[in-house]
Design a protein that fits this description.
The complex is a heterodimer of chains A (558) and B (207). In chain A, 65% of the residues lie in helices and 2% in strands. Chain A has 558 residues and is mainly alpha-helical. In chain A, a hairpin with a 5-residue loop joins strand 1 and strand 2. In chain A, helix 12 runs antiparallel to helix 19. The longest helix of chain A has 31 residues. The two termini of chain A are 22 Å apart. Chain B has 207 residues and is mainly alpha-helical. Chain B folds into two domains: 42 residues; 158 residues, no CATH class. In chain B, the strands form two sheets. Chain B has a three-stranded antiparallel sheet. The longest helix of chain B has 34 residues. The termini of chain B are far apart. At the A-B interface, helix 1, helix 2, helix 3, helix 5 and helix 6 of A face helix 1, strand 2, helix 3, helix 4 and strand 3 of B.
Chain lengths: 558, 207
């Protein structure tokens, strides 16, 4: 296996991201700090009945986020339930209630977990007017919350943290839509389809028939990656040749899903008036990303597992045009962001390759994480890191001049505890209640032994962290998994957002204190090391027991 | 704090509904714009990179097909695609990987069975069968096989069609595609394109 190919591919990726870092990061900072509105924005504000100059307290900002999202869930639910009445439904029936509940939450929370097979479940109108709308909306909500936190850190004695509706509209109109148009055209050129033809039947060379699917795929693919959403137009997601036709489109899609999360540190640095702070955040993200990528590349090419060895390489579930290494690049990137798109079957990854995918999500998806959620996740960890370091050197901890006191540490700790509690509760109920376990082992789980446990573990970790990728052998369209994963996705998205916005409000109210000799500098390599250490400590160790029961047991068993 | 925005959750809900309506309009316009660009500027790609033979569409260059009997036995006059977990095999209405785990005994057995069946069908040693020939792809619609797998089938296809082996080997080499730009992804041979060229070169042998 030519490892230098992956090195060259990653180098290309880093150059592309590096070229965009400044202009995109600065553009996003301008977008969220400018006091000028575009003509189309003024029209939208009038339509919404919103005064764009009115600022919101953190509580009001939070209320807008929650109301917007809950209304989004309800609307998505209704559209799925009435699918049969909608145009371009391809003759598909209404989506069942449990599945509609799960899917509505899934797309509003930027998770895009799919308990269903899109080809046989969702017509074009639901895909386009319901799911794709939330691909924009959920990414814009993530951006808005992250920017609100940054504003809190940058503000002095302020009672407000911005206006959610303005952030939402600007995030969509100035960032997500323009980038998506460009990305969709590039994908089109690469062979991604864009039509409304439905399924076309053709006669093959052997005298049989074959079907060729249609659909507005390129437009959806672009925002699916850019917004770190990940919900595929087709069941096979980005492994499907119509979603991801070639080696270069694969790299382009990886680039798209990393683009905004890796550029946001620049936005952060610019907005707080100290770009070195942004660079430190970027360094922490990049360190974790490259370490994880290296680990998965080594483990996956080593080819663990009896079946893998019988075949001679880990090609089960992987496309020929990507090979093992470009599939690893995608798998790492999708699980370290909140994307959850896949270009290979994660269920068929080698035991330890699948272990890395799980750990990536357990780290809390902040290297670089989802659009917005990656930045606010990492900033929360930075607060923890400042506190830990402050304890070690015996100083009052502060971040960017803002004091990290009892309230801040409580909120940051609650943020960090939320997802593990949700994941482990869901998993515990699944295997602690006999009836649920029977439903899992009887209907849901595909693979025998520890790998079957890993399928369920992966599902809850993916839902809790709003990733959306799966060990896809799991049949998740059951009452228990639709309900429990739906609840975990919802709480895993919005409970942390409550803590983030509360932190933002608290920081905003403080007056920054000037740095003294006793202040821990937060732009140094040493601080980056502390942050990386804090990520690994607080996140990964929480999950060690369950990892030992699943992928580690399977990997060491071989 | 301005009152306009903070007058209760009910008002916020109305704003949210209007915001979603506006977003839906934006998404539809965006989709139509991309569709227009696709249909006007890049129609071949936008409509699925269709492959024609004798004027009729026989498939898409991007979507794999099976070249077996309905029961899955190798049709020796055609180059074979990889195993597929999409429906009954290469069903583009049901794209899917197998999702079988790396230690699943069922997968191990399937791989061993495929190895012996392919070794018999191509009359080659079992150890010569490359991994992609034994494993299902991520989509179940993989249009390509590795160059190694295509080359392995040359002798068998040439025998079935009574063609000189060198001629078939030359044809295959013409369809070997390196990774994009030399390093992105992995080398491939597009099976449908190869078989379409084979059918044109040797119409008598299509069976």
């Amino acid at each position: 296996m030519a490892a230098w190919l992956l090195v060259a591919e990653v180098a290309t990726l880093l150059v592309l991201l590096g070229v965009c870092y400044r202009p995109l990061g600065d553009h996003m900072a301008r977008t969220f700090t400018s006091d000028r509105d575009l003509a189309v924005e003024r029209f939208v504000y009038r339509f919404l009945g919103v005064d764009p100059r009115a600022e919101q307290s953190w509580r009001n900002y939070l209320r807008s986020v929650l109301v917007f999202s809950v209304v989004g869930v309800l609307l998505l639910y209704v559209l799925q339930r009435t699918q049969a009445l909608l145009p371009y439904s391809l003759g598909l029936p209404p989506v069942p209630a449990g599945l509609s509940f799960n899917t509505a939450i899934s797309f509003v929370t930027n998770t895009d977990w799919q308990s269903y097979s899109p080809e046989t479940t969702m017509g074009y109108t639901v895909q386009l007017a319901a799911l794709a709308v939330q691909n924009f909306a959920s990414a814009a909500v993530g951006l808005a919350v992250a920017v609100a936190l940054v504003r809190g850190l940058a503000a002095r004695r302020a009672s407000t943290i911005g206006n959610f509706w303005v952030d939402l509209v600007r995030g969509v109109l100035r960032i997500l839509l323009p980038l998506s148009v460009v990305a969709a055209v590039v994908l089109l050129a690469g062979g991604v389809i864009q039509n409304f033809s439905g399924f076309q039947t053709v006669h093959t060379l052997t005298g049989g028939t074959a079907v060729i699917p249609g659909g507005p795929v390129a437009s959806q693919e672009a925002i699916k990656e850019l917004g770190t959403n990940g919900g595929g137009f087709f069941n096979a997601n980005s492994a499907h040749p119509f979603e991801n036709p070639s080696g270069w489109t694969n790299l382009f899609e990886v680039f798209l899903l990393l683009l905004i999360p890796f550029s946001l540190p620049r936005t952060f640095g610019t907005m707080v008036g100290d770009r070195r702070q942004g660079a430190a955040v970027l360094a922490a993200m990049a360190t974790l990303y490259l370490a994880s990528l290296t680990a998965m590349a080594l483990l996956e090419t080593a080819g663990g597992g009896a079946a893998t060895q019988a075949a001679g390489a880990a090609t089960e579930g992987k496309e020929t045009r990507f090979g093992v290494l470009s599939s690893v690049l995608f798998a790492t990137s999708t699980t370290l962001t909140s994307t959850g798109a896949v270009d290979a079957s994660h269920d068929s990854l080698t035991p330890l390759g699948g272990f890395v995918a799980l750990v990536n999500m357990m780290l809390g998806e902040l290297a670089p994480g989802g659009v917005g959620s990656g930045l606010y996740g990492l900033l929360v960890i930075a607060v923890i890191a400042v506190f830990l370091a402050g304890l070690m050197i015996g100083r009052t901890p502060s971040y960017l001049g803002k004091q990290v006191g009892g309230r801040e540490i409580k909120l940051a700790s609650l943020y960090i505890l939320t997802t593990p509690v949700l994941v482990l509760t869901g998993l515990g109920l699944s295997f602690g209640i006999a009836a649920l376990t029977r439903s899992l082992t009887g209907t849901s789980i595909l693979n025998p032994g520890q790998h079957g446990f890993s399928e369920v573990l992966y599902a809850f970790v993916s839902a809790g962290n709003n990733n959306g990728s799966a060990f896809g052998g799991l049949t998740a369209n059951t009452p228990w998994l639709n309900a429990s994963l739906g609840a975990v996705m919802f709480l895993g998205r919005f409970v942390p957002i409550v803590f983030v916005l509360a932190l933002a409000g608290g920081f905003a109210a403080q007056a920054p204190r000037p740095a003294t000799e006793g202040t821990l500098p937060t732009h140094t390599p040493l601080f980056v090391v502390v942050v990386v250490g804090a990520v690994v400590l607080v996140s990964a160790l929480t999950y060690f027991p369950v990892l030992a029961l699943g992928p580690l047991a399977e990997g060491l068993h071989a | 704090m301005t009152a306009v925005l903070t007058r209760g959750t009910g008002r916020q809900a109305w704003v949210a509904i209007r915001a979603l309506a506006a977003l839906t309009v934006a998404t539809v316009l965006y989709t139509l714009l991309v569709t227009a660009v696709g249909q006007l500027v890049l129609p071949a790609q936008a409509n699925g990179s269709l492959v024609r033979a004798d004027g009729r569409v026989i498939g898409s260059a991007l979507i794999g097909q099976s070249f077996t009997t309905p029961k899955g036995a190798v049709l020796p006059q055609w180059f074979q695609s990889r195993p597929s977990a999409a429906g009954a095999g290469y069903d583009a209405a049901a794209s899917s990987p197998s999702n079988l785990g790396p230690d699943d005994p069922a997968l191990g057995k399937a791989i061993r069975d495929r190895r012996s069946a392919l070794a018999a069908a191509f009359a080659v040693p079992a150890a010569a069968i490359p991994p992609d020939a034994l494993t299902a792809s991520g989509s179940g619609l993989d249009p390509a096989v590795s160059p190694a797998y295509a080359r392995l089938q040359v002798a068998s296809v040439a025998r079935a069609r009574h063609l000189p082996q060198a001629e078939v080997a030359r044809l295959v080499e013409g369809f070997v595609q390196g990774p994009d730009l030399g390093y992105l992804g992995a080398p491939t041979v597009d099976v449908l394109a190869l078989n379409a060229a084979l059918a044109k070169m040797d119409p008598a042998g299509n069976g």
